[in-house]
Design brief:
By secondary structure, the chain is mostly helical. It contains 5 helices and no strands. The protein has a domain of 68 residues.
């Protein structure tokens, strides 16, 4: 969505890193690994992609609504691409897990 609209694809990375792309990248990797471990432990073996997408929405609510609202640069981001990113993340993790678990 951001690319199509010609927006800044690194805005969320800088927001999490308090202006630094490097710090934001490290934070994104750490956060993604954390949620990946949680999803691997909790997603069901059936309908894993759908459950992962749903989990991505729950993660978005927590990341953006609870944590992100306390960080002004994150709070300033357009929430729609952020939610879509979380939805896609959950679905991708679910897809990977469904293949790994076979």
């Amino acid at each position: 969505m951001t690319v199509v609209q010609g927006g800044d694809v690194l805005a969320s990375t800088r927001a999490v890193g308090r202006g630094s792309v490097l710090a934001g990248g490290v934070a994104h990797v750490a956060i993604s690994l954390f949620w990946g471990v949680i999803l691997a432990a909790t997603l069901p073996r059936r309908h894993t992609v759908l459950a992962g997408a749903g989990a991505g929405l729950v993660i978005a609510a927590f990341d953006l609504g609870v944590v992100g609202r306390r960080i002004p640069p994150v709070r300033a981001l357009d929430w729609r691409p952020q939610v879509l990113d979380h939805l896609a993340y959950g679905a991708v993790v679910g897809s990977v897990l469904s293949h790994v678990r076979r």
